[in-house]
Design a protein that fits this description.
By secondary structure, the protein is mainly beta. The protein has one helix at residues 2-22; strands at residues 35-36, 40-44, 57-67, 70-83, 85-97, 100-107, 110-112, 115-124, 132-142, 146-152, 156-157. It is built from 1 helix and 11 strands; from the N terminus they run H-E-E-E-E-E-E-E-E-E-E-E. The strands form 2 sheets. Strands 1, 5, 6, 7, 9, 10 and 11 form a 7-stranded mixed beta sheet that branches. A 4-stranded antiparallel beta sheet has the order 2-8-4-3, with no helix packed on it.
């Protein structure tokens, strides 16, 4: 009986430690509803003379600031030439809770046609001052071929 109990405790410890060490998204995320944000999309232009025979990303950026007590996220995608489509999708705002990243808001982003660049703005009103966040997204476009570029802002403290 003692040997079985010790084996059970050892197995339980392995399960608990593997969940902690794997850095999985927090189970708390299952209990939270992820906020769906609307993106404001506008056309921008490439002001360089760079040109190539394929789809190249000149700018793929994520910037974060604060406006009207909300996190203001600006995502810019600029390609090397006029594209049939240029955009950003799969925008996710991640909040660090303990050692885990929890998705707190998403946006489908948007796109524009027959131009070389676009900018997308998303506002997240529920950001907590002093907490750690990161933003991920996928830039995409088609000049002579469809390409995607994943982007990650890296973690930052929301102290704006």
């Amino acid at each position: 009986m003692k040997k079985g109990f010790k084996s059970f405790i050892a197995l339980l410890m392995v399960v608990v430690m593997s969940n902690v060490l794997c850095g999985k998204v927090s189970a708390a995320a299952e209990n939270k509803e992820i906020e769906q944000l609307q993106a404001q999309v506008m056309e921008v232009h490439n002001h360089s003379d760079f040109s190539a025979l394929s789809t190249d990303f000149i700018t793929a950026s994520i910037s974060v600031s604060k406006i009207n007590n909300a996190m203001y996220i600006s995502i810019t995608t600029i390609l090397n030439d006029t594209a049939s489509i240029v955009g950003v999708k799969d925008i996710v705002i991640w909040h660090k809770e303990g050692g885990n990243w929890v998705a707190v808001a998403t946006s489908s982003g948007g796109s524009v046609n027959q131009t070389d660049g676009m900018s997308c703005v998303v506002t997240y009103a529920n950001a907590i001052q002093g907490d750690t966040y990161k933003i991920t997204c996928t830039h995409y476009g088609n000049v002579d071929e469809y390409r995607e570029l994943k982007n990650d802002s890296g973690e930052f403290k929301y102290n704006f």
